[in-house]
Every structure is written in structure tokens, then in C-alpha cells.
Design goal:
The chain is mostly helical. It has one domain. The radius of gyration is 20 Å and the shape is elongated. About 10% of the residues are buried. The model has no long low-confidence stretch (mean pLDDT about 90).
């Protein structure tokens, strides 16, 4: 499972927990956490697409001073 998929699983778990609680404050926090996980998943996918389109150059070799 890729990182964005992990993040979405965490979001689903937060929503499952929110559905299982009757405490309004805890429910609100869990829903907020789920939204944050979804945003992180979306950003992770954007980053991955950018990296595929614009790969990083290979690291430069540093020459030792003589």
C-alpha cells in the first residue's frame, strides 16, 4: 500500500471512531483529523506526480581538496 493509501486508511479509521462515539467534542476532533489525513493524502499524490514529472538531479560528487 502506498503512502497516500495509508493516509486514506487513517482517515477512514478516524471516521469509524467518530461514528462510534456519542461525545460531541471527540466526534468533532476525529472528523477534523480525518479531513487532515485526506489533505495529506492529496498533497502526497501531488508531490509524487511532481517528482515523476521533474526528477531530482543525481547528487554531485564532491572533490576532496589536494
Amino acid at each position: 500500500m502506498s503512502t497516500p493509501e495509508h493516509y486514506r486508511q487513517y482517515a477512514l479509521e478516524c471516521l469509524r471512531l467518530a461514528d462510534g462515539t456519542s461525545e460531541p467534542g471527540a466526534k468533532a476532533v476525529l472528523i477534523d483529523m480525518a479531513q487532515a489525513w485526506i489533505k495529506l493524502a492529496d498533497q502526497s499524490e501531488k508531490n509524487r506526480r511532481f517528482e515523476l514529472a521533474h526528477p531530482a538531479p543525481p547528487p554531485r560528487q564532491i572533490q576532496a581538496a589536494s
